[in-house]
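Incident review: delayed structure delivery

Summary: a single-chain prediction request sat in the queue longer than the usual turnaround. Root cause was a stuck worker, restarted by the on-call engineer. No data loss occurred. The affected request and its eventual output are reproduced below so the record is complete for anyone auditing the incident later.

Affected input:
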Amino acid sequence: MHVRVTQRVNDATKKEYVDETRVIKLVPAQYDRMVANNYFDTQTYDKVEVLHDPRRAAGAKAEAPATGNKPWEPVEGLPTLQDAQVRYQQLTGRKAPAVEYDILIEFIRAAEADSDEQTTEPEASGEGDTPTRKALRSTADAQARYKELFGVDAPADKSFTELKTLIEAEEALRSKQE
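Output delivered after worker restart:
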């Protein structure tokens, strides 16, 4: 089989993204395994097109699953495996295991449930009148907290980290004023 794969890469000299296309040759069984293991659904390739499949009628082209149309919906705030790995490390303090995205999301949900139980326990400091704030875990949480604090929608151009920094600074300032 002949498969054309395209990747968008950042060309540092031109300072723009360019398409790098190449044709790879695969044995039909190998291609079937790659499709079954969602190899083409990863972020490795932006476009995958089967040019020649000897199993099909002569001249007929078959399309590989399109990258970007994944069968799962990403968890809000964790759209990529790398985001999920970073979140897992934030929650547990350990490096994320080498598992699929869906399994890692389950680990994250379990870790968040554990941390929620710890967060909702009463504080031992004796200050029962200060409410415990829920930790910011996603962009949606940060946007909601930003709106709560400032009374306006969060700027769309700010990343999760930038929003979190702004929120923490504002909360620190307000706690000093009280």
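Verification: Residues 101-119 form the longest helix (19 residues).
Action items: add queue-age alerting; document worker restart procedure.
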